[in-house]
Amino acid sequence: MATKEELLQKLADCVTEMEDEEVVEVAQQYIDEGYPAYEGIMDGLVKGMNKASDLYDEEEYFVTDILLCSDAMYNGLDVLRPHLPADAEGSTNKKKVVIGVVQGDTHDIGKNLVRIMMETAGFEMFDLGRDVPLDDFVSKAKEEDADIICMATLMTTTMGGMQTVIKKLEEADMRDRVKVMIGGSPISQKFADEIGADGYSANAPEAVKLAKRLVGVEK
User: Fold this and answer.
1) Residues in domain B12-binding N-terminal (predicted)?
2) Which residues neighbour 41 within 8 Å (Cβ) at sequence distance 6 or greater?
3) Residue 196: how many CB atoms within 10 A of its CB?
């Protein structure tokens, strides 16, 4: 009988090592042993995906590797997610988030990690993808009556688009009811303050905590 810590490490390793079939077996074993699904996701699968992201940043992994890691993570999620307790998603299950990479930028690995973790935390996510026209953030938020808009970029040349979206929200009389979160390697809290965003997060786990604070559902 494997310990919880051993299985959590196996889950993480399966994701990092792109073991998309083995992760299913390990995830099922984790559940069969009676361990909590939420910890399996956050301390196993997500931990492995974060490590893979670090390897990508260090140029040891390529985009194709990250995609294979994502496949493994999703396979594990398919096993674990049905076993989340009814309250694991908390009161966030009705909170809607529009997320995307701003126009001019096609880097979306960080955005995808944030989306996965926020989905796991119970938010309803509307992913616009990458290189998103700025008007689309506002129109989608209006269409879905979203609570939060999350914008990301890895390029300094596209950072200004985030401020443009905030101005468009103001023009549409939506700014008072839609929170704005931003992130990406060139982004800082100082920049978030300058453009009037509601918050900035440096990584995916922090993004989840920030989102919960902004909509008042942090435990």
Assistant:
1) 1-92
2) 76, 77, 80, 81, 84, 120
3) 14
